[in-house]
Amino acid sequence: MRLLITMLFVIFYMRLLAISKAYVNVALNKPAYQQYPYIPGDDRYDASNAVDGRKSDLSMNSGQCAVSWYEQTATWWVNLTRIHSIHHITIYFMTNNDDSSFRSYIAEHLLGFSVYVSNTTDRSQGTLCFKDDNFTIHTIPPVFTTNCFVHGQYVIYYNERLPGVVYPDDYYRYVDILLCEVEVYGCPETSFYGSNCSIPCPDVNCQYCHIETGTCQGCKPGYQGHRCVLACNKGLFGVDCNERCGQCREIYQCHHIHGTCSTGCAAGYQGAMCKTGCDKGSYGLECKETCGHCRDINQCSNVNGSCLTGCDAGFSGELCETRCNNGSYGFDCKEKCGNCREIDQCFYTNGTCLTGCDGGYQGYLCKTQCDRGSYGIECNETCGHCRDVNQCSHINGTCITGCAAGFEGDLCTTRCDNGSYGFDCKEKCGNCREIDQCFYTNGTCLTGSEGGYQGDLCKTQCDRGSYGNGCNETCGHCRDVNQCSNIDGICIIGCAAGFEGDLCTTQCNKGSYGIECNETCGHCRDVKQCSNVNGSCLTGCDDGYERDLCKSREYTNTKAKTKLATYYYKKEYLKK
Fold first, then answer.
1. Is 474 helix (H, G, I), strand (E, B) or coil?
2. If you average pLDDT over residues 14-20, what whole number do you get?
């Protein structure tokens, strides 16, 4: 059995040799890659060893084989650097130069392998040329060849041992790369076929034709159909007409081969293929228009210039080219300007009042009223003496609820005139010693009262019986104490009996008494002891007189009384 297999292999190899002479190994010395290198950086096991043309020693450490570490997946590929028409692929597996060793230790790692041709390194995007479903460790050939009449840039070898999948008994539980040479035979140029790659593809617009029959397998860019005689449909171009035209001004003017827009781009696009949007900040035909003041310049429509997320602060309109009207500012011009001194000097982006605030306001936006107690332009004026400082108008300083005690006027900066005080200066000062010393807030007499008055306000007359400055003087002997002048102490209705003078503080002169001292004392034993009040003789009468006033003669007999009477008559009346 083994002899039969060997003979078949020799026959197959001779036939392959004959075919190989007609086609070129397009994989020779091309870039290669393998997953999980056996010893990274060690050239003896590098992926490129499988396309270096050497296959005289198929052992592991010969430096002629690509070897990887065993894992659950194994991937190796060669990059042909461009698309080629492929005829067949031949793989020389590592054998350690011994068939028995190959089948006993190596083959079980190789069973189940696949070969793909693709235009990328993603095998799923390519063509499966071969998938081993039948080989065993006894039947897998050490040199394997498969036909693959396709076109591609990458030839990919792949194998796997996935968890949960049941594999045949011959399969080892891991796989690895054990490739000593991979030869890819085909034509070095596209658009040709035949054993010598010398016959042009029969269809003029055919890029890839079957390498043996010449049947078209792929049109040149821009063409489609069985014989590649049809140009791409409107709006499509390129290989297999899979490319979509850009934003051409006229869709019929998109070139079916390379996608160039022959009459230029539609609004918002630029470049030969009109697939590139206008640069940031520009829009329209040929991107010649400049975007307005968009909130986000990246959100300016490259087609019509509309600002997709709105305008930047200070601008409005679809194109955000219109500045906010006087009196408004900010995003969408929704903010209202503050109390600017000049409304046209409200900055349209952030509302700053460029020439300052109107009277009564402060801050950049002029929306903040003056601090309590100040008003006017730049809040530089100080409020007057308002009854309530919170009720001082921040604009003109007017005291809305009136002035504090002692002040008057709209601004409450004027002190009460001399002689008045209190709220609205309606109170009249009392009897201050100095009228200009009446305190304007509460009427207090700062230097004291005028004579006859007392109290802080000097409006209260002296108590009964006192008068003068500070009411410190005591009234004299007035006939009626209530009629003592509180100012100068004069007894208005005269003195009490026994006193005289304006102030009634002077006793009657010796020898007189009574009201206004109009009475004459009698014959007091001691004239000084005559009461100035009622004329009574305090120490008694002179001889010959009796009673309280000592004005009555005392007689012992009728004759004596008659003689005495005659004596006084002569003395008092005849001398006159």
1. strand
2. 39
Question: By the 8 A CB rule, do 329 and 348 touch?
Answer: yes
Contact 218, 239 (CB under 8 A): yes
- Which residues sit opposite 24 in a β-bridge? 186
CATH second-level architecture of 2-187?
A: Sandwich (2.60)
Over the range 456-472, which residues count as b (16 or more CB within 10 Å of their CB) and which as e?
Answer: ebbbbbbeebbbbbebe
- Tokens (6 digits) for 337: 């300007």
Q: CA 64 to CA 141: how far, in whole Å?
A: 19
* pLDDT (average), residues 536-561: 77
Beta-carbon contacts of residue 492 (< 8 Å; ≥ 6 apart) = 478, 480, 483, 484, 485
Q: Which of 285-289, 358-362, 545-549 has the lowest mean pLDDT?
A: 545-549
- Beta carbons within 8 Å of 570's beta carbon, 6+ residues apart: none
Alpha helical stretches, state H, 94-194: 99-101, 107-110
Bridge partners, residue 443, by sequence: none
SS3 418: coil
In terms of average pLDDT, the best of 118-122, 295-299, 456-460 is 118-122
Name every residue whose Cβ is closer than 8 Å to that of residue 505 and which is 6 or more positions away in sequence.
476, 477, 499
Model pLDDT, residue 562 = 54
Stretch (H or E) spanning 144: strand 143-147
The DSSP H or E segment spanning 243 is strand 243-244
Give the global pTM.
0.49
Q: Model confidence over 309-349: pLDDT tens digits? A: 999 999 999 999 999 998 999 998 999 999 999 988 999 99
Contact 408, 414 (CB under 8 A): yes
Q: Decide: 507 and 535 in contact? Cβ < 8 Å.
A: no
Q: Is 59 within 8 Å of 39 (Cβ atoms)? A: no
CA separation for the pair 574, 565 (Å, rounded)? 13
Q: How far apart are CA 312 and CA 324, in angstroms?
A: 11
Domain spans of the chain?
2-187, 513-563
Mean pLDDT lowest for which of 6-20, 113-127, 167-181, 438-452?
A: 6-20
Amino acid 360: pLDDT? 92
- Each residue's pLDDT tens digit, 251-269: 889 999 999 999 999 999 9
Residue 520 and residue 572 in contact, taking contact as beta carbons nearer than 8 Å:
no
Alpha-carbon distance of 323 to 334, in angstroms, equals 12
C-alpha–C-alpha distance, residues 98 and 7, integer Å:
17
The whole-angstrom separation of Cα 395 and Cα 411 is 12
**Strand pairing of 407-408 and 381-382?**
unpaired
Query: What rounded mean pLDDT belongs to the chain?
Result: 89
